[in-house]
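Quarterly update, task 2.4: carboxymethyl coenzyme *A-bound model.
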Amino acid sequence: MNDNKSAKLVFNNKEVELDVLHGSVGPSVIDVRKLYGELGCFTYDPGYGATGSCESAITYIDGEEGILLHRGYPIEDLANKSSFLEVAYLLLNGELPKKEEKDEFENAITLHTMVHEQLINFYRGFRRDAHPMAIMVGVVGALSAFYPDSTNIDDPYERMVSSRRLIAKIPTIAAMAYKYSLGQPFNYPLNDLNYSENFLNMCFSVPAEKYKLNKTISDALDKILILHADHEQNASTSTVRIAGSSGANPFACIASGIASLWGPSHGGANEAVLNMLSEIGSKDKIMEYVNKAKDKDDSFRLFGFGHRVYKNYDPRASVMRETCHEVLNLLGVKNEPLLDIAMELEKIALNDEYFIEKKLYPNVDFYSGIILKAMGFPTDMFTVLFAVARTVGWVAQWNEMITDPVQRIGRPRQLYTGKVLRKFEPLEKR
Ligand code: CMC
């Protein structure tokens, strides 16, 4: 059909007319829900590259043009003109807050930053060398045992409280994971600091010495958090949604998102980028790694390059690139060998036929690791910082899903290629 309202599919001499749905912007979507009922077949889309799993009004990405909008606002404007908590409010509520709304929200988040003292015992159960993401998955999941009052997902008020609790406590939990790995005492949150300052202080201050907060550094961290806050139906967000679709409580759902984020193809890429830059070690070895990445028989990939959706420069990477230079200038890092390697690698890759043809551009994780390293974070904390930021997106998407009247349990089907019905053989006959 060319009326843009429906699409026809013929299969096994049977025809079905499928509705075509149109969002406010972006490609049309063919509604295949009646396909199985009418034609007895499923769609096949491993990795869901051509599948819209839900309706959402939170984040829009145009991967061809390199555009990212949150509730209609370009990511560049939010990163340069807003604050992380303001963006959190926007993602959760759909509009930028007015002054009194902003004050109320920030105050509520500030008042929820402490965790139950009993939660400290969980940390002691981990080895000191445990990866902080392993600790995050465990401790965030455990929150449901501490706040059973806010696990009632059918009550809008309880959903709001659990959402705020998660956004407020995630930096405290992350900083505690870091302190635990160092063998240093945990720091309590300080209510007179903003979200990013508080996180830096909890990570870097010690009883013997106060951490000197620096506005450029805390603003840069705030920007990093904004840039990572949400990214529509990515792997971890889809994980949160599918976990939540069964009615699981929000703490359990966010723990599942953290687990999914950990992988090197997703949030773990920022850690992998820095490890890769260190492994490259010097500019003269870059080509060797570029060639490895291009070699079909080598599974090596250049971390920080490529994206499922962006087939253009990741708009978050442009902001991150600028911030990276600001932070390194401020800290007087004149010769950061890893940055030199990163810049050269970017130049080579952007001019290489393989990367041009496959539209592989630097993504958000390409620069974030260098900034976080300069701030003093060890590499295994990079993905944790991503999780702190993305909690806002997960929570916003989880809330949207719960209130979506068409939402039902996520239950994909499959293309079965296993054995067909066969007879059970007793052990002595096998
Ligand atoms: N280096 C070399 N080749 C690459 C890379 C890379 N980083 N990324 C993709 N390719 C090639 C890939 O081999 C394939 O080639 P061919 O068509 O010849 O088989 C082609 O490009 C398409 O790749 P794909 O695997 O089909 O693409 P995908 O959409 O499934 O994967 C990705 C997207 C992000 C997992 C992938 O680009 C990748 O592994 N990048 C490195 C990891 C990374 O930086 N991840 C962070 C993503 S941004 C933050 C986030 O969202 O969490």
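Highlight for this quarter: The longest helix spans residues 156-182.
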